[in-house]
Amino acid sequence: MGEIKVSPDYNWFRSTVPLKKIIVDDDDSKIWSLYDAGPRSIRCPLIFLPPVSGTADVFFQQILALTGWGYRVIALQYPVYWDHLEFCDGFRKLLDHLQLDKVHLFGASLGGFLAQKFAEYTHKSPRVQSLILCNAFSDTSIFNQTWTANSFWLMPAFMLKKIVLGNFASGPLDPEMADGIDFMVDRLESLGQSELASRLTLNCQNSYVEPHKIRDIPVTIMDVFDQSALSTEAKEEMYKLYPNARRAHLKTGGNFPYLCRSAEVNLYIQIHLLQFHGTRYAAIDPSMVSAEEVEVQKISLHSSNEQEEQ
C-alpha cells in the first residue's frame, strides 16, 4: 500500500519541482504553499485548488503531464482562513503577488466551491478566465453541517480527521483507487488541527454560489459515475447552475480522479484549455501548440467514437 508515495513519478516530481511558501497577508502566519511549474512567460496559467483533505502535491500527475506539454500550472495549498470572503481576499493578493491578472482554475470538491466563490468575488473586475469544477458543489448546505461549522475550531485533530475520512470510499476498490485513497489519507495526516478545522469550516459554513455573477465564464464540470462524497442531487444542481457548461464524465474515479484516473483527467483539462489557444489567455507556450493540439484532438475524437460505439 502507499504505492503513489514511493512511485518514480512522485519522487521525480518532488525532486524537480520546488515547493514555494508565500505570505501575502499582514498576518505572517498565513502561508500559501505552492508548486509553480512550466513556462514563466505564460501570464494566464491553470491553478489547482485542493479538497479539504488535499495538499498541493495531490495534483503532481497533472503538473508533470501538463508542463511536459508546454502548459504553466500552479498547485496551491491554502493558509488558515475562516470565511470565504477572507479566503477570496487572500487569494486575490496572492495573484497580485504572482503578477497574474487572469487565471484558469481547476477546483476539486472544496477547491471547486472556493473557485466559484472567487470568480463571484471578482466579477466586477474579473480575475477568472475559466473554471474546471471536479466533484464540486455550489451550496454548502448539502453536507447538513452548517450548524456545526462554527465549532470545528474547537475540535481536536483526530476528530476532524475522522469527519473527513467518513466521506472516503469504502468497500472493494480497484488498485489505482485504493492507492489514491491511501495517498490522500497520508496527505490528510500531514495537516494540522487549524488547517483542517478552517477547511471544514469553509466547506460547511452557510454559503452558496450566485450564478448570475459568473455566468459568462467558460466552465467544464468534471464528475464521476461511481461512488463519491457528492450526492446525485448536488451534481444535478451544478448542471442546472451551469446549463452551458461542458461536461467531462468519468465512469470511475471516486473522490480523487486526478490521482487514480489522471490520464483521463489530463485529457479533459487539455480539451477545456484548447478554446484559449492563440489568445492572450492561453495557458500553453505557443511554440508547443501545433503538435500537442493535433494529438489532443486525435485522442478526443477517438475517445468520443469509442463512447458512441458502446
From TrEMBL:
Gene3D superfamilies from the UniProt entry: alpha/beta hydrolase
Domain (AB hydrolase-1): residue spans on this chain: 87-163
Location of the protein in the cell: Cytoplasm
Taxonomic superkingdom: Eukaryota
Gene Ontology, cellular component aspect: cytosol; trans-Golgi network transport vesicle
UniProt xrefs under Pfam families: Abhydrolase_1
Predominant place of localization: cytoplasm
Keywords: Cytoplasm
Signal peptide: none
One GO-annotated biological process of the protein: cell surface receptor signaling pathway
Gene Ontology molecular function, alphabetical: CD4 receptor binding
Family: Belongs to the AB hydrolase superfamily.
The protein's name: Maspardin
Protein species of origin: Patagioenas fasciata monilis
Gene this chain is encoded by: SPG21
